[in-house]
Protein 1
Amino acid sequence: MKGQIASVHLLLTICLQHLKNRRTLSYLGSNYLEEKQINEELKMIEFLKKKGYSIAPSYQQTA
């Protein structure tokens, strides 16, 4: 019961924030998470390069 109430509260809070800020929900795309991970990896590579390390991205798919 507590879990259900917490979930409803979360959804209502999100809806209220969207209504207050007059935002619409937007579709992020089917590959949003993959792009986000690649961008994070590239940022980390740039950070390590600034620190003096030589590193290259590896795009290996995991099963």
Protein 2
Amino acid sequence: MLELKRFAKIALAPGEEKTVTFTLGRDQLQFVDQSLGRIVEPGRFMIYVGGDPTALLTAELIVERSMKNN
């Protein structure tokens, strides 16, 4: 399942390059579990940069342990 977590609209002139930085934290990785608590589950998560999942810029994020908010 793909979810939009962060975005920024930037304008670039032809041939111009710009560095854009995003921080993904617990708030962006968590979801509501069966007990209606907020949790981050361990696993591998692909991060896509661009307009869709066919984007050329990707990164992998590995969460090693569950984190639950009470």
